[in-house]
Structures are given as structure tokens and as C-alpha cells.
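ESCALATION

Customer reports they have been waiting on this structure for their group meeting. Please prioritize. Original submission:
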Amino acid sequence: MKLYSGPLSLFSRKVEIALHEKGLPFEAEYVPFTQDGGYEPRHPAVLAANPKRQVPVLADGDVTLFDSTVIIEYLEDAYPLPPLYPKGAAARARCRQLELDADEIFFRPVINLLYRTESAPADPQLREQRQREAQKAEAALRDHYARLEKLLAGRDHFCGAFSAADIGMFMTLHYSLRLNGPRLDGHLDLAAWHSRVGARPAFTRVTAEIATADQKLSHPLQP
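Update from on-call: job pushed to the front of the queue and completed.
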């Protein structure tokens, strides 16, 4: 099994955590990446497999897939133990919806913080615009933190037992914190969940790899 991944790709790292949680051996090939140039030139295997031209791409025998959600669902079907989704149609649908929330709703304001690891632009107007967008993003993230706190409601995990929803939510929150987003002060359940999930071996391994990649690839954080 081979995973084409990005050293700082949130969605690639999601898949890596799922693979580690399932105990599946895999070869990770990290495509070229710089903070200022992105993923150019694109890796030919990624271009051949994904019309979106993005990692992650998983090759497992004669199966080649892109998109982190599709890949994790494939891993669940092909390698069901240990499970990353609950039993029952309703519970599984709720879990999938929470993972979609992490990727497409919770993550949306995080996008406006990504510039903080790039080199500062020379144009002062662009710097000011980015900072204004970041302030709005931080306000939105505080609202998301409060919403997630209610969703947890004292539970250990978002879907009862540990699941793909926890992987998605953790990674989005991790990137918010990594980019100097709002802290978790006042969100006791969310902070406890973050610490508990983050202590799992798959998560400690991947977050350490992200920190190492940050040291090599990221510029000092902008305000």
C-alpha cells in the first residue's frame, strides 16, 4: 500500500492517522512542497490519479483513490478491524456528517489562517487584508469551539467510541491551534477531548511529524 502525501497536508495526515489506527503498513511518499510555491511541480502520480491535482492519493494493489474521506471509507470496507465507524446506518451517517463538518465547515475559517506560515508579502495593503480576514476567522473559530463543546456534551468521543469523526475534528482543530488560532480556554470538554485523542499513538506520531515538517518548511508565524 502506498500513500502519496504532503508533509503539511491536513487531509493527507488524516489518512495517515487512519492507517496507523488500523495498524496497516504503508509506504508514504511525500510530494514536493514549499510554503511559497505550494505543490508545484505536481507529482506525476498525483496528476494521473486525481483530476483535482491534490494529495492524498492511496494506491492499494489495483485500487487507486483520492480524497481523504473516500480513502478512509475504503479502508473501513477493505480492512474493517479495528473499526473507525460505529454500527448502524443512523450512527454511521451521523459520524460521516461530523467528519464532513470537520473538513468543510469547521475547516473553512482555518483557511484564512494558512498564510501565517508563508513569507510576509511586501504589499502592506495585502498584509492588512490578511490580518482582517484572520480576525474574522478567529471569531468564527470561537463560535465553532462553542458548538463542538455542545456536541461533545461530556462524552469521550464525538460518536460514542473513537471514530473517523474524531480524526477529522482533531486534525482541523490541530491546524487551528498550529496557526495561532484561538486557544481552548473555557472549553473544558473540547480541551479534554483534544488531550485525550491527541495522546493516542497514531496522533502523537503524526503531530510530531507535522511539527518537524513545520521547522523545515514554514516561515516564522505571521500575526
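Sent to customer with the following note: Strands lie at 2-5, 27-30, 57-60, 63-66.
Escalation resolved.
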